[in-house]
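Case 165 in the screening queue. Each case pairs one protein sequence with one candidate compound; here the compound is MU-OXO-diiron. For every case the pipeline is the same: read the inputs, emit a complex structure as tokens, and attach any notable structural observations.

Predict complex for case 165.
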Amino acid sequence: MIGKKMEEALNDQVREELSSAYLYLAMAAYFAHEGWDGMAHWMRVQAEEELEHALRIFDHVLERGGRVTLQALPAPEETWPSPLAAFQAAYKHEQHITGRIHRLVELARAEKDLPAEAMLGWFVTEQVEEEDHALKVVQLLERVGGDGRGLVLADRELGQRGKED
Ligand code: FEO
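Case 165 output:
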């Protein structure tokens, strides 16, 4: 049976993961509207991953006899000044999520909640990948700068993203 403190903290993280999906869907809509279909695809795949993250925690709470309480999600922004600015915001968001996951691991340790700690271990590794993926796109777009042709090629490349990338 999961403890109340951990249950509450994991419910908060379900909200954060759903909120991440919401943010990336907003970015997908922004890119699609601007005609950047490859970047829109990248963000859509990312949003789907975030939903999977939320469900991982959702299932963990339920499997341990806890209660899942879904919370209200804040509306994400709708627009960004440039593709680079959007990916910079995505990278910053992932750093924020990493910090939250690390604090959850610390809480699991303090509570001596070994199952939660083991479940969160997956997220610790995943966040290394999440930050790396976002940063790589930031670096790519920084290199491209204001070169329109380069941006078109970058968009094409980002449109190739598979589910596990
Ligand atoms: Fe669920 Fe992108 O962290």
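Case 165 observations:
- The first helix runs from residue 4 to 34.
- Residues 4-158 form a domain with the Ferritin fold (CATH 1.20.1260.10).
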